[in-house]
Amino acid sequence: MKFSTKTTYGLRALARLAKNYPANISLSTIAKKEKISGKYLERIFAILKKNNLVVAEKGMAGGYALAKEPQKVLVYDIIKTLEGGLSWFHCLNETGKVFCGAKCHCPAALVLKKIQASVWSTLEQITLRDLV
Question: Rounded CA gap, 110 and 82, in Å?
């Protein structure tokens, strides 16, 4: 299992917001401190904003802030949002259901389902507050 740089950078940027919660931070400040391309960060934050993980405020004191308190933002939700889902095995859907065919009796399916469920469970227990 490998997460994209979008997810890695998104987690780093959101951890930065969590450290400064509830204050706003500009994307340029986050980009500079985290050494992430500003343009790439803009695309990430557009996704985060669309999915209600961050809010934006315009003006001199503007920038981005978390939409909820850091202890209420699950790493699971961030990764699911940025990865576009959480199904890491080609024969399992996001709910863990085997969908490789009606007559699939893959001996690996049971193991893969357990791995996927364990990873999800772990991610659902970690919040942004835990990262900072």
Answer: 27
Query: Where do the domains of the chain lie, and which CATH numbers do they carry?
Result: 5-131 (1.10.10.10)
Residues 6 or more apart whose CB falls under 8 angstroms from that of 127 comprise: 70, 71, 72, 73, 74, 75
| Location of structure tokens 């985290």 | 34
Q: What's the burial of 22, exposed, middle or buried (CB within 10 Å: 0-12/13-18/19+)?
A: exposed
Give Cα 109 to chain centroid, integer Å.
26
DSSP-assigned beta bridge partners for residue 65? 55
User: pLDDT tens-digit profile of 43-77?
Assistant: 999 999 999 999 999 988 889 999 999 999 999 99
Read off φ and ψ for residue 97, nearest 5 degrees.
-80, 135
Q: pTM of the full predicted structure? A: 0.84
Which residue is associated with the tokens 């389902």?
A: 113
One-letter amino acid for residue 16 of the chain: R
Maximum CA extent, the chain:
61
Give Cβ neighbours of residue 60 (< 8 Å, ≥ 6 apart): none
Tokens 């400040």 belong to which residue? Answer: 29
